[in-house]
Write a structure and sequence with these properties.
380 residues; SH3 type barrels; 5 strands; globular
Length: 380
């Protein structure tokens, strides 16, 4: 796929093919591939003025929603064209986004276009549209737009609005706090003040917060999200009667799907390959399996400790080392997402000596769910 500035003719050709009226079955993947390829390079946008205009027209007028979205994604990389057509489109997008009589999809697409024009310029519109009287799809688009502002605007706004957020939006809202230290700090402040309940933070995000590279944030997260009922020994003692409960492997499958499948598979199936494949523990004693679930640091499987990578750019990454080559390291993060890091970009590399799964699972499932999960994990 094209990528560098010297590939302008090839990029022009690929965009023309992707926007041609024929070949519907492959033009959307082509647009997505271009978007991914051009995301991290210094392509000369001025040399693609005509193509950006074509992409804008496609994002507004293509009859296929998926094609409109893909064209807008590529515009997000290349930038809107500097033309009267853009000025006119932005003016219409302002009216459309605010119009409750329009189709939700049209309003959401208008919000996305305004975000491409500069989310900070249209902040007040996004704030106005993020309210319970608006359709969830419109609120979701407005939240995405606010999230694209690089500072902590969205975090401060969400903490203020949190009591009025519906359950369907809370998951998306929590996601906006992740990844940036100032936003994480605001989230932890809200947890400490009981504005946000820890129960809305999913297990993978708990793991991420409690394994943060920033020592102060990591300590705060572990204090707020790990076991509150005493020591690990006390938790283990409290859970011993799990062994006497009647269990259901079928119900355990549901527990696995909700809490475990985001990081684990069983026999290479039914989940994401991030942590160890749990088929390997099938023949272990249930007490031993439960101990590792409740206190994962008791037994860190070889190759599954978290690494912290400090880059020369000042950024930091955490995750498993999936593969290594003489020139690069591939980091696998939660959800199976992989990032290739050139060794020449690495300032420091250190194992954090902690499991990718942290303690506190007892806060997410009760004793009956634990019994059912054990039955599912141990079935032939």
């Amino acid at each position: 796929m094209a990528g560098a500035s010297g590939d302008i003719p090839k990029i022009k050709s690929l965009i023309a093919k992707a926007l041609s009226p024929t070949g519907k079955e492959w033009k959307i993947p082509l647009l997505k591939g271009l978007t991914q390829s051009l995301r991290n390079n210094n392509t000369d946008r001025s040399a693609l003025a005509e193509e950006r205009e074509l992409l804008l027209n496609s994002s507004l007028k293509n009859p296929e929603p998926a094609a409109r979205r893909s064209a807008m994604d590529l515009l997000g990389v290349l930038g809107l064209p500097e033309s009267e057509n853009t000025v006119r489109a932005i003016g219409e997008a302002v009216l459309n986004a605010k119009n409750p009589g329009l189709d939700e999809e049209k309003r959401s697409e208008s919000i996305r276009l305004l975000a491409l024009d500069g989310a900070r310029k249209h902040t007040e519109i996004f704030r106005e549209l993020f309210r319970p009287t608006e359709p969830v799809t419109v609120q979701s688009a407005a939240l995405n737009a606010l999230n694209s502002i690089p500072d902590s605007t969205v975090s401060i706004f969400l903490v203020d609005k949190w009591p009025g957020l519906t359950p369907g939006l809370k998951e998306q809202a929590i996601g906006t706090f992740m990844g940036k230290e100032p936003r994480i700090s605001i989230l932890l402040d809200a947890l400490e003040k009981d504005i946000i309940d820890p129960s809305v933070i999913s297990w993978p995000r708990r793991v991420s917060l409690m394994a943060n590279a920033n020592e102060k944030l990591r300590a705060r997260a572990r204090k707020l999200l790990s076991v509150n009922s005493g020591s690990q020994q006390e938790v283990m003692k409290a859970y011993q009667d799990v062994m006497t409960l009647t269990s259901s492997a079928d119900k355990g499958r549901l527990v696995f799907a909700q809490h475990c499948a985001v990081c684990h598979q069983i026999g290479g199936k039914n989940g994401i390959s991030y942590g160890p494949d749990l088929a390997t523990i099938r023949n272990r004693r249930p007490e031993s399996i439960m101990a590792d679930i409740l206190d994962p640091n008791l037994s860190i499987a070889d190759g599954y400790d978290i690494w912290n990578i400090e880059l020369k750019s000042g950024e930091a990454l955490q995750g498993l080392i999936a593969t290594e080559t003489p020139s690069a390291i591939t980091i696998r993060n939660y959800g199976g997402v992989e990032t290739v890091v050139a060794r020449s970009d690495i300032q420091a590399l250190k194992a954090m000596e902690t499991s990718v799964m942290t303690a506190g699972f007892d806060q997410l499932i009760d004793k009956q769910q634990m019994a059912d999960l054990l039955a599912y994990l141990r079935q032939p």
